[in-house]
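Homework help board

Subject: predicted structure for assignment chain

Our instructor gave us this sequence and asked us to write out the predicted structure in token form, then describe one feature. I got the tokens but I'm not sure how to describe them. Can anyone check?
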Amino acid sequence: MISYKNEMNRVTKVISAVSLFLPLLASAQYGTIDDLLRRLCVVVGYVFAVLIFLAIVFVIYAAFLYLTAAGDPEKVKKANATILYAAIGIAIAILAKFLPSIVAGLMGTSVNPYGSSGFTGC
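My token output:
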């Protein structure tokens, strides 16, 4: 049985996530697909930078856990999990970096966010 509080928490998270992209979508209705892709490149650039920074922080934290483990299997297990999560974060960041190229390919556009012809990604 799902409680009302848990369900409202999920709805709040979804609304918060969607509201982050509303300004991007609202401004896109007056522009072209090229403008939308340029804006998407800016957003993806920020997300990429944040995810890479967090992954580096997690790798440093995992290294600290390894150094202070002193043979404790629980700390080593936690350090291994942290390294795994950092690797997953890097994979997601790389996927986010290539997302505009994938979208441009699906839409059949050839826009470059830097002004020249041909979409090369962000």
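Reply (TA_rk): Your tokens look well-formed. For the description, you could write something like this. Residues 32-122 form one domain. That's the kind of observation they're looking for.
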